[in-house]
Amino acid sequence: MFTRIATIARNTFTELVRQKVFYIILIFALVAIGSSAFMAELRVEAQFQMIKDVCLGAMAIFTSLLAILATANFLPKDSEDRTIYTLLAKPVPRFAYLAGKLAGIIILLFLFVLIMSGVFCVVLWLREQTALAEARSTASGEDLAFAVKSIKDATFNANLVPGILIIFVKSALLASMTLFISTFATSTLFTVMISAAVYFIGNLQATAREYWLQDKVNMQLWTRPLTGLIALLFPDLQAFNLADDVIAGAAIPTAIFLKTFFLGWVYVAVYFVLASFVFSNREL
Amino acid sequence: MKRRVLAILLLALFGAVKMPFENALDAAQRQAKLRQTALDLNLRERVGQMGFIAALSGFRSPLAAYLWIEAHNAWERTEWGRMAGLFDTVTTLQPRSLTYWDMAAWHMAWNASKAALDDPKQPSEALRIRNQRQFFKIGRDYLERGIQNNPDSYVLYAALGNLLQQKMEDHCGAAEAYLKASEFPDAPLYISRLAGYEMAKCPGREREAYQLLKRLYDESPEHHKPTLISTLKELEKKLDVPPAERIDSSSSQS
User: Fold this and answer.
1) Which of residues 131-170 of A touch B (CB under 8 A)?
2) Closest chain B residue to A43, measured at CA
3) Residues in A touching B96 (Cβ below 8 Å)
């Protein structure tokens, strides 16, 4: 079973690579290097803040887009190419087919995040070296020690790692959610539109949940069930937007990081189970 | 069709099961001062519809970066009012960023205030001075709000000390701010010295200043700076410290 899933995952990964998705990395590198060059006009602390803002923001945008757009295309493309019929005619359970597809995109997303993190670190390191050289040429003694400490504090810190990992788990969640939507969708466009809508609603879910759980006396009759429905059906994507705080220098306590990471994978598993449940009976 | 409906019902059931966990996680994240941004109508008006959607979609930081660049452009065109508005938005989007608070305050209290003082369109010196002081206050306000959002860092306390000392000449206030900054374990050594210097200028706190500076002097030769030694000597005279307790200035650094 695992061999079959691995084979489908490998093929999915290869297909995505052939679609030249890695060109996105090139755009990311251009954004990172371009922003770094422009930021040279700003004060040192602001330069590092901007590089982190732009790079981690771009990382979040690219991985979210890739997760939704690539996953939405799996089932319609395999139906169009007729590969799905060939595959499912063999002793491949439908859930194994979906698991392979999901694993393929998750591996691609992981690789994406890894390469983008590498580019980000190189750009940040180069900028740090330039700033350190400037500090060494203009300051000495206690001032230099303070300047070096400020530069090092403003560049790399351990909190960037959980921030980046949460960007990855959020993209995996989006891929799994899109796969679930695509199992009952009739076209790629429908899947993309619904996934985008769920994405936006998911970012408002926390507000809806808070509103629903509050004991508001003057709440309209229809508001409570509606906000309740939103809170129950949609994922709380705000919980995964911690990169914004990491960029600002805030530390994510380990317990909170682990809980958020765990919640992300629970979502991935639940959406996958539901996708398999719907897909197992779908007429192809 | 039945399976789809059942899947949605199962999703709702999962929603009910995960809700206590999500609530607890939400509370824990907020307690750790994460996700503090107030995404309200006030922000909606300031960043426009697209900006608000970006902020809602988890892209607060790139939006803040973009608006900061806008503020930088406004600075180059000396549009101080627009700059202050953009700084307000950026700090609302990223309240945990020390850099944004610190630099917003610096732009207002140093650059905008100087421009107000030198304003060729304002013939009245009294009004120019009044405008300059208003920018000092705006700068101070940024730092105080920044401290409220980031009470766990020395950086903004030190910046507030600098502003009170260099711009507002409030030595007592500066001493307090530097003292608070120096309480943080990662604060640079010079901040405690600055607290002592400012305290020495604060009427009624000379004895306290002497004790602080003397403690620093005894603590480490790294504190044996010319300013510290001269301030200590002045305080020794002023407080009539017995000769035996006075410092030996021969160990001073140049």
Assistant:
1) 142, 146, 149, 154
2) B103
3) 245, 248-250
- B190–A57: do the CB atoms touch at under 8 Å? no
Structural domain includes residue A197? yes
Let me know if residue A132 belongs to a domain: yes
Q: Phi/psi zone of residue A247: left (φ > 0), alpha (ψ -120 to 50 degrees), beta?
A: alpha
Closest residue of B to A54, CA-based? B62
* Contact call for A203 and B56, based on CB within 8 A: yes
What's the gap between Cα A280 and its chain centre?
Answer: 28
pLDDT tens digits, one per residue of A180-220: 999 988 888 999 999 999 998 888 887 777 777 766 556 66
* Full domain range(s) for residue A258: 2-279
On chain B, the residues whose CB falls within 8 A of the CB of A54 are 62, 65
B32 φ, ψ (degrees, to nearest 5): -80, 10
Burial of B110 (0-12, 13-18, 19+ CB in 10 A): middle
Overall domain count for chain A: 1
Q: Residue A58 and residue B4: Cβ atoms within 8 Å?
A: no
Cβ atoms B178, B161 nearer than 8 A: yes
- What is the SS3 assignment for B167? coil
Cα gap A100→A47, rounded to integer Å: 42
Could you report the per-residue pLDDT of B135-170, keeping only the tens digit for each? 999 999 999 999 998 888 899 999 999 999 999 989
The pLDDT assigned to A218 comes to 62
Among A175, A167, A51, CA closest to A113: A167
Q: Which residues of A touch B14 (CB under 8 A)?
A: 270
pLDDT-based confidence at residue A9 (cuts at 50, 70, 90): very high
Give the closest-approach CA distance of A233 to chain B in angstroms: 5
Whether the per-residue pLDDT at B252 is higher than 70: the answer is no
Is A284 contained in some domain? no
